[in-house]
Amino acid sequence: MEKVERCFCKNCKKETGIVWGTTSRTTYIKEIPFDFSETIAICKECGHEVVPKGLIAFNMKEFGDQYYTLLENEAKLCNDEIEDHTDCQECGEDYLFKMKDNFHEFSIGLKTILSCLAMAEKEGAVPKIPYEWWWLINGRY
């Protein structure tokens, strides 16, 4: 996209000079917030955003690139150990798994893992797990 110096401003109702910049925005994808950056053009006279030719298509491509970068950011176990957290009164988790993605190191609790497994079972992503197993787990966690 060519970054032009002038564009029609709907607010001023005339062609004006513009300033280019970026801004952070948040949208929701399946009710989950997704933060992304977007290129913007601002009218030098009134300060409103304007839309030069090609800006929408450019931002759609940038949004897609940012979204797919996020999707490709797969978390993996840091090591093959589970952290015993039974003495912690603050988080309510008995066991934690250390994880790492391209940007962060973090922990996921066993309760969260079990919730994910239950959702995967409900959606048919994993075979049905016997009721007795869930009953035993429910009693422990």
Quick description:
The protein is of the alpha+beta class and 141 residues long. It folds into two domains: 6-71, Roll (Ubiquitin-like (UB roll)), CATH 3.10.20; 76-140, no CATH class.
Describe what this molecule looks like in 3D.
The structure is a single chain. The chain is 29% helix and 38% strand. It is built from 3 helices and 7 strands. It has helices at residues 55-71, 110-123, 131-140; strands at 6-9, 14-29, 32-43, 49-50, 76-84, 95-100, 105-109. It has a 4-stranded antiparallel β-sheet with strand order 1-2-3-4, covered by helices on one side. The longest helix has 17 residues, at 55-71. The mean pLDDT is 90.
Query: What would you say the CATH architecture of the largest domain is?
Result: Roll
Specify the number of helices. Answer: 3
Large-scale geometry: elongated
Reported by name, the CATH topology of the largest domain is Ubiquitin-like (UB roll)
- Helix fraction, binned, reads 25-40%
The largest beta-sheet arranges its strands as 1-2-3-4
Largest sheet: 4 strands, antiparallel
- Under CATH at level 1, the class of the largest domain stands as Alpha Beta
Q: Write down the domain tally.
A: 2
Structural class: alpha+beta
| Unreliable residue stretches | none
Task: Note the run of SSEs as H and E.
Answer: EEEEHEEEHH
Distance between the termini: 54 Å
Q: Rounded to an integer, what's the Rg over CA atoms? A: 24 Å
